[in-house]
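dumping this here before i forget
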Amino acid sequence: MTKPIVLEICAPSLHSAINADLAGADRIELCQNLNEGGTTPSFGNIKYCVDHLNLKTHVLIRPRPGDFCYSDQEFQTIQHDVELCKVLGVHGIVVGFLHEDLTIDVERTTKIVELAAPMSVTFHRAFDICKDWNTALEQIISCGCHAILTSGTQKTAFEGIPILKEIVQKAQNRITILAGSGINATNASEIIEKSGVHEIHSSCTRSISNQKGSPDLEKLLDESNVYHKESDVELIKKILSLQIINKPKK
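structure:
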């Protein structure tokens, strides 16, 4: 029997998460500030998703934008956020820790995996900027992580197909390889078929505004105060309707 394809939606807001659930996605990676690469979402958003949605909720734990070399104080806040997620009943967390030389911070990664149990732990795309992905793969596996979110070290998963295939082969089912970055209904099938991944990660967002007819406001404020990115039900359904995924419609 063919292993089913899992679709995770990167949900940068509460309504993005709700839309992912309505569309029939398997899981969300809940975050906020996606325009800055994503940061830890609010307590309220996490609790709502766990309490009210049918899909699995994974939470990005990232205290700030930028690099993945955190101070001792930032690492303390990360640990507190992980503990909070566990209390709330979150299914999994998403983290990434590097040293200044772009190698995996094995000590911190292992500590978070142990702290997070029984939640699953995904190592995010910090993996893609490591100086040696082969070594990084083995280290992340040794830390006990359950998945790696990767674009195959390239800007997009489509561009990274050849390396994604190598990563899947070298992982040998010891860890889940979750392909992400730039995945949509037009390229998802090719990425899955050529790389061999069984899980994909997509945001499926549109830029929207709930304000109506406020041209003066747009002149006064930055665009980020008018528009926001929100995962779209129809864009998600387009991926789910692909023959290679073959999900039943909700």
